[in-house]
């Protein structure tokens, strides 16, 4: 399973590269070292290759404006209330880049150019991305070494793994922000079915942060324990859904496998997701509106299943604290059938 590397631009003494992996079934995965980004997942069809994730029109577009599409978002994905992390009597203040809150790591890891290496054998291909994030960058303590890898195998499974280590006490909660649109580039997520192995979700306040603790999904539109239509939930007029203009909610996983199954009834395509992470934030691309660099993308065109630690209501971020010298290691797998 050879790997092709193509440089598509050079800026600021960095080569920006697109890496292509192909398995024996003809499935292709395209990656960018900008943001350790999953750019495209292409599956073979009778009419040629079809992309089943949301993508911009060209690799060059990804660095023109921040869009999170397939990026490795960190150091901390999501919002931190008032940008504050309190440990003991000490408060670390992070930049406020979302009103009165901090979001997606400030100028996050998805906006950085990673070094990379590739490996392949007869049955799988791997691209590994490395980033050094300096102490104090975006207000985060600690020199952090981040390693992100993607492995495509001949079973149409894509494995995404994040490893990191810091030399100071810090916080760390990254994810991949890929949006799936299983029916191809001229479709949306409303016709897809979603099943989650989750008994509880976190309601959100006006700042899109948890504020009431965990709630049972029983008897709510957030009950995905049996597969149901994403569009039916979006159009349910539940107050939480209307406030966010769609799904944007953390679901706490039971820990059994798989974590999630997203499927297309029309084209009989499925992605089965397993993960080491304890939660998934489900977001239906509510903000896309066919403007700017992402002018080819609209509201609800795709759905992202962000594997992570669930966001916290306040400044106690113990769950995402990384000790000096502690190895951070998590993974997510996406199994495609078509």
From TrEMBL:
Q: Which InterPro entries match?
A: Aldose_1-epimerase, Aldose_1/G6P_1-epimerase, Gal_mutarotase_sf_dom, Galactose_mutarotase-like, GH-type_carb-bd
Q: Which residues form the active site?
A: 177, 306
Top-rank lineage group of the source organism: Bacteria
Name assigned to this protein: Maltose epimerase
Q: Which GO terms describe its cellular component?
A: cytoplasm
Which range is the signal sequence, renumbered to this chain? none
**Metabolic or biological pathway, per its Swiss-Prot or TrEMBL entry:** Carbohydrate metabolism; hexose metabolism
Q: Name one GO biological process term.
A: glucose metabolic process
Residues at which beta-D-galactose binds: 177-179
Question: Under the GO molecular function aspect, what terms does this record hold?
Answer: aldose 1-epimerase activity; carbohydrate binding; maltose epimerase activity
Q: Which UniProt keywords apply?
A: Carbohydrate metabolism, Isomerase
Reactions the enzyme catalyzes? alpha-maltose = beta-maltose
The UniProt family comment states:
Belongs to the aldose epimerase family.
The record's CDD domains line, in alphabetical order, gives:
galactose_mutarotase_like
Q: What does the function comment of this entry state?
A: Catalyzes the interconversion of alpha and beta anomers of maltose.
Class of enzymatic activity (EC top level): isomerase
């Amino acid at each position: 399973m050879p790997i092709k590397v193509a440089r598509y631009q050079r800026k600021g003494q960095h080569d920006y590269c697109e890496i292509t992996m192909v398995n024996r079934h003809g499935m292709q995965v395209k990656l960018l070292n900008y943001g350790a980004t999953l750019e495209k997942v292409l599956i073979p069809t009778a009419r040629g290759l079809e992309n089943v994730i949301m993508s911009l029109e060209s690799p060059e577009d990804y660095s023109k404006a921040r869009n999170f599409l397939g990026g490795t978002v960190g150091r901390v994905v999501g919002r931190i209330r008032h940008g504050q992390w309190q440990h003991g009597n000490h408060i670390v203040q992070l930049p406020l880049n979302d009103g009165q809150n901090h979001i997606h790591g400030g100028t996050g890891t998805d906006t950085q150019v990673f070094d990379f290496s590739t490996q392949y054998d007869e049955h799988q291909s791997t691209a590994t991305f490395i980033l050094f994030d300096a102490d104090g960058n975006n207000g985060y303590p600690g020199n952090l070494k981040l390693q992100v890898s993607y492995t495509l195998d001949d079973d149409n499974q894509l494995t995404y793994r994040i490893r990191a280590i810091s030399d100071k006490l810090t916080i760390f909660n990254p994810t991949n922000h890929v949006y799936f649109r299983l029916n191809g580039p001229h479709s949306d997520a409303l016709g897809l079915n979603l099943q989650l192995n989750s008994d509880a979700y976190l309601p959100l306040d006006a700042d899109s942060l948890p504020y009431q603790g965990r709630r049972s999904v029983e008897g709510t539109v957030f009950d995905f324990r049996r597969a149901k239509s994403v569009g039916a939930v979006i159009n349910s007029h539940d107050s939480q859904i209307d406030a966010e203009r769609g799904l944007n909610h953390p679901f706490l996983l039971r820990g059994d496998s798989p974590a999630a199954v997203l499927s297309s009834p029309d084209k009989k395509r499925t992605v089965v997701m397993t993960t080491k992470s304890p939660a998934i934030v489900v977001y239906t691309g509510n903000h896309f509106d066919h403007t700017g660099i992402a002018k080819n993308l609209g509201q609800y065109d795709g759905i992202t299943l962000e594997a992570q630690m669930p966001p916290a209501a306040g400044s106690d971020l113990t769950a995402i604290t990384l000790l000096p010298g502690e190895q951070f290691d998590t993974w997510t797998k996406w199994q495609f059938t078509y």
